[in-house]
């Protein structure tokens, strides 16, 4: 396995690590109070740095693959899979904490199912579809929004505001987070429609 593919696998491995610091632990009534208190205080900040490392691997694997001529079908698959798994897993954690709406997450997940279906149809015709530029822009907006939301508790503390996921009253910090996430959802819809409209031929040719 070449280096770009190893970086994609590293991104997948970092997913549970990121979530570990985002969510409190409760296993059949067993609750590690000291750990959960640590998570409530500094968990999101640590998760932010782990997520940034994972995001950097997304940039590096593509750069290395292109510059060293290591582009493979496995690499195209792993790169796209790792991006989707990382973003969706962290957004599920945000839904669990009450920070984002499950409805907006559903839009993102359904878009990914649709694109995956198109890629399956293409693969039946021997075509392995790499991520398009508009898809990369979508992923970038999602990662920017997620990084901001992960740093949001720390920003709230610095601003002297209370953070607990859902806010009693809107404030400039939370509004910026909402706006960044809304932009990422809009880009998700736009990229999904672009993918669908430009690949309708695969539906026509499907049995």
Q: Which descriptors would you attach to this protein?
A:
single chain, 207 residues, mainly alpha, globular
Quick overview of this protein structure:
This protein is mostly helical and 207 residues long.
Tell me, what's the shape?
A: globular
Radius of gyration: 19 Å
Structural class: mainly alpha
* Oligomer classification: single chain
Uncertain runs are: none
Strand proportion:
under 5%
The description of the largest β-sheet is: none
Spell the H/E element sequence: HHHHHHH
Overall average residue pLDDT:
86
> How many angstroms does the end-to-end distance come to?
34 Å
How many helices? The count is 7
**Approximately how much helix is present in the residues?**
over 70%
According to DSSP, the number of beta strands is 0
What can you see in these coordinates?
This protein has 207 residues and is mostly helical. The chain has 7 helices and no strands. The two termini are 34 Å apart. The mean pLDDT is 86.
SSE diagram, text form:
Elements: H1 3-20, H2 33-67, H3 73-97, H4 102-124, H5 133-158, H6 172-198, H7 200-205
Helix pairs in contact: 1-2, 1-3, 2-3, 2-5, 3-4, 3-5, 4-6, 5-6
């Amino acid at each position: 396995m070449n280096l770009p593919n190893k970086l994609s696998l590293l991104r997948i491995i970092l997913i549970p690590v990121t979530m570990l610091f985002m969510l409190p632990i409760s296993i059949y009534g067993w609750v590690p109070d000291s750990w959960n208190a640590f998570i409530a205080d500094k968990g999101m900040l640590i998760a932010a740095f782990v997520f940034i490392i994972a995001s950097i691997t997304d940039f590096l694997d593509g750069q290395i693959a292109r510059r060293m001529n290591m582009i493979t079908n496995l690499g195209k698959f792993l790169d796209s899979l790792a991006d989707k798994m990382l973003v969706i897993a962290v957004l599920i954690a945000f839904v669990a904490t009450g920070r984002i709406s499950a409805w907006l997450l559903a839009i993102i997940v359904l878009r990914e199912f649709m694109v995956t279906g198109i890629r399956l149809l293409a693969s039946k015709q021997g075509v392995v579809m790499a991520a398009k530029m508009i898809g990369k822009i979508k992923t970038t907006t999602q990662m920017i929004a997620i990084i901001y939301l992960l740093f949001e508790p720390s920003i709230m503390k610095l601003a002297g505001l209370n953070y607990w996921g859902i806010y009693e009253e809107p404030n400039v910090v939370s509004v910026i987070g909402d706006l960044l996430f809304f932009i990422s959802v809009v880009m998700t819809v736009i990229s999904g429609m672009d993918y669908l409209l430009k690949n309708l031929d695969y539906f026509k040719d499907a049995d």
